[in-house]
Structure formats: structure tokens, C-alpha cells
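Thread amino acids onto this structure.
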């Protein structure tokens, strides 16, 4: 009789361990996907930063402006996360597009137009990567908050992650692509 209880306890422990391992693996898969999405966003933001850096010289050579895209120059020495870098780059984009309005002749400059096209392309990439990132974060956050996966999250110290939503940064209205 006691041996039967021992076998039963061992079976229950094995089942619980397998369930824990399966849920833990789902978390790991989501974390890998989150890291992949963050890397894609980071790469695209760096591309946008590089394009805005190139725009500095183009604008200086084609206008009488002495200080151009000052917000971008300040970013060169700062280490920012993707959320903060995106906010700063939006300010640079707005400034960049302000030069287009102030100096309509820039629209005839091939280098300027190539940068403009590249910036529009990076915006569409960031929108796609942001959607992908937010979809993964939704799945991850559901696992952190719902039973029984929240038990594994508690043991593994997984916390809810923020969305890449730009709520404080309405780029679609601010940036005129």
C-alpha cells in the first residue's frame, strides 16, 4: 500500500516536472523571439541614425544653415535603449523634414532625396518590426499573467514587458513621409 503511494507521488512529481519544463521552454522561445525583434528594431533605428547623420553634411552644403540636426549630433555619444533612441530619432526626423519645407530646393538634390527615400523605407520597416515585437510581447505577457504559466513565471522571475507603442510619441502625425 505504501509502495503504491510512493509510485503515485513519483508519477505526479514527474508529470509536474514535465509540465514545468514545457512551460519554461515556451517562455524561452518567446524570449528568443523578443530578442530577435529587438535586434531588428535596433538595426533599423541605427540605419535611420546613419541616414540622418549623412543628411547633416548634405543640408549644410545646400543651405546657409550652420547648425543642422543638432539633436542627432547629441546622440552620437549617448547609449540609449530602442525606446529612447526612437523618440530622439523622431525629433531628428521632424527637424529633417522641416528643412524640406524651409528649403524647397533640397527636393532637387539627389543625395537629399536618397536620404529621404531611405528614411521613409526605415519607417515602414520599423512599423512592421514594432507590430511583430508587440505581438510577441502580447503572447509573453499573457503567459506571465495567466494560470498555470504564471507559476513558472514567478519561479523564473519573469516580469511583464512594455509594448513598443509610441503612445507618448505620435509619429504617424508628427512625421510627414
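Threaded sequence (177 positions):
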Amino acid at each position: 500500500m505504501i509502495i503504491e503511494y510512493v509510485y503515485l507521488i513519483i508519477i505526479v512529481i514527474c508529470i509536474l516536472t514535465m509540465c514545468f519544463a514545457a512551460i519554461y521552454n515556451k517562455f524561452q522561445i518567446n524570449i528568443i523571439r523578443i530578442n530577435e525583434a529587438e535586434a531588428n528594431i535596433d538595426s533599423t533605428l541605427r540605419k535611420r541614425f546613419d541616414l540622418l547623420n549623412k543628411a547633416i553634411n548634405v543640408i549644410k552644403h545646400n543651405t546657409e544653415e550652420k547648425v543642422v540636426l543638432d539633436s542627432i549630433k547629441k546622440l552620437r555619444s549617448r547609449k540609449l535603449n530602442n525606446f529612447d533612441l526612437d523618440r530622439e530619432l523622431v525629433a531628428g526626423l521632424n527637424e529633417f523634414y522641416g528643412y524640406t519645407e524651409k528649403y524647397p530646393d533640397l527636393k532637387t538634390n539627389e543625395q537629399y532625396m536618397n536620404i529621404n527615400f531611405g528614411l521613409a523605407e526605415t519607417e515602414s520597416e520599423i512599423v512592421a518590426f514594432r507590430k511583430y515585437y508587440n505581438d510577441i510581447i502580447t503572447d509573453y505577457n499573457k503567459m506571465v499573467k495567466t494560470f498555470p504559466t504564471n507559476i513558472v513565471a514567478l519561479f523564473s522571475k519573469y516580469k511583464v514587458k512594455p509594448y513598443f507603442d509610441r503612445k507618448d510619441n505620435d509619429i504617424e502625425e508628427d512625421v510627414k513621409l
